[in-house]
Predict the 3D structure of the following.
Amino acid sequence: MSIVETVKGTAQGLVQGAMAKLVPLAPDSWIPGGVPDPLIAHQHGKIGTPVSRIDGPLKVGGGARFAAEFSFDDMVYAALAYATIPRGRITAIDTDAAAAAPGVVLVMTHLNAPRMNPPAVFGASPTAVGPADLPIMQDDRIHWNGQPVAVVLAETQEQADHARSLIHVTYAREPSTTSLVDAKANGIEQGLFMGQPLLNEIGDADAALASAPHTVDHVYRTPRHSHNPIEPHAATIAWIGDGLVLHDASQMVTAQAKTIGDVFDLTMEQVRLTSPYVGGGFGCKGLWDHQILGAAAAKLAGRPVRMTLSREGVYRVVGGRTLTEQRVALGAQADGGFEALIHSGLSIMTPHNNMPEPFILGTRAAYACPNIKLQVQVAKMNMLANTFMRAPGESVGTFALESAVDELAVELGMDPIALRIRNEPEQDPTSGLPFSSRHIVEAWKTGAERFGWDQRSAVPGTRREGEWLIGMGCATGTYPYYRMPGAAARITLIRDGASVRARIEVAAAEMGMGTATTTAIVGAERLGLSFDQVEVGYGDSTIPGAIMAGGSQQTAAIGAAVIAAHNALVAELLKLAGNDSPLAGLSPDEVGSEDGGLAKRDDRSRRESYASILERAQRDELVVSKEASPPLELMHWSMHSHSAIFCEVRVNAVTGETRVSRILGSFDCGRILNPKTARSQFRGGIIMGLGMALMEETQFDERNGRIMNPSLAEYHVPVHLDVPEIDVIWTDIADPHTPMGAHGIGEIGITGVAAAVANAVFNATGKRVRDLPITLDKLL
């Protein structure tokens, strides 16, 4: 790192430290969200009513084009060859047979690849989204088993796949670390997440644990998990003039365009990346080696390239969730009040990116306790770089924490829901900040009544139907409210005779969660237009701003950007209205939108329609762009989505087979903007949690660092017969400090599910499983 970078980083750290101290002290009114969003009280529009996704008919009818469905004239197809050692050098690579195979246009290796800069690794800057700090196909080095070593371009995909099989690579192996034992022996370090240490210490947790009358102290383990979106990763790529065009599947459209542009020394204006439909992301649809290699091969061949990863290719190139070993120790008084909470342990990452699994994040704000010690340490292995996976940290961290809480309830002879409510915090236990909104107790009570929790037997193994043992379990889930900086919106108001319509554009991504639909709902409410009068544009790097579909924050980011753009639009309309309007003399703060125009907030008789204002100004349209306010609310309040998960399981006493027979999620996520898509999001998260609990596990060969089950035949995910009827309810209590009063819902569904299943298995059988997944061999 240069002296300039060091000074810049130090200065940035000092500024952030000062802000973290000053922002909590500021009056609420100075902070975004300090004055509630008017849409929280706006009840006569679409917000809160079920709306079908506007992209639904396109997808059902085949009109929605995904990344691998775009085409260019004279396009060729790509296939990747992968390394078979964990670390070393390529000493020879024989591509003659591949180059001579039918239809082959080009074989690219490190020997003939264009010169490229390493991609800026995620977190290095606001727009850096590279998977690792490694150069891509620029030398003979091998860093993980599965690293791409050659690209074949051919006239058809089948020809490219065949030619790839003809490549022969000779390696010189070098010492590598591919076992957990060796990784620990090589040294353990303090873990960092997003530049901050994963460490919190309040009081003396060790001493409090030693003196507590009731304790539990156990280690919980979670395995590696691999991403399996239904749509595998793909990109269709072309060089047009001196510019690069990519039709990709991306959760971070603008930032990804910037990062890949830097690889090829291009400006942002020279790169256009579109991603209208992502097809499932969950953290994995970002920048990986395949897009950069596809762009390099297209440049070398002088022809457009379609790069589609096979299912195996996703396992070789795209990172997933790393393994964890977590110790949770709880000390409590006889009434259940916590005296000590220790959540610590180990995560694994690579030497070339900083992405441990931050499993303590959810614990930071979970329970009131005077003595807390939270820490994630890391060891390093030579393997594919980790990445985000739905609820990174919280999903696996809640398995350990909520299993331990259940174990303490057994130790105390106390109902596990009562124990959780007994330890509800009044303010954030680690930051000391007030909660912006927290109604998890209400979620617990309504969920317990609906699920029939009072029918649960407190004695494990006592409910039985034939061979099937029946049990109930529960767990709390939590996920932070995020709103990342950089979001912007462009609003175009278009006059069409006596009426108007609006186009709202945001650099966001659609992964099937209904982003465009929610944006249209919010935009219609904000502008005082009907749903049919609003069109949404997204998924294109030419749109202003940068919005990442991650961290369950996209809706909040879009909402804040649309607020800013709407305010700018009102100001411009008042200028156009002039002195001949009923609105003359009013400031933007005094005016709101309703019924297709502007009106004075406290005197609706002073109003004028958008069409009238534009017509008198002789304008057919008005365009405004504005960036959202900085997300200072995150430093002022402790902000989270919450869930109470209830689960009933049946375990076969003869075979050990486990079946989830019922599951209920009771959620506290602020205001629900679209119940139809929200219910789907919650259910999808719960299903992913069932997979984590019962079957998902990446089989990693510790002898050579190779993933051994790179297919859906061997890496098991839930199918229809694994999923019971899923009931979902929510509090629908608006958070007064967020856009629209809403919290994120994309990741809260998975958190707590694995623990609820494990706790139900214990209630059914009396056997405690602390090592995921809960397979039948652990129950026999």
Observations:
- The first helix runs from residue 3 to 22.
- The two ends are 54 Å apart (CA to CA).
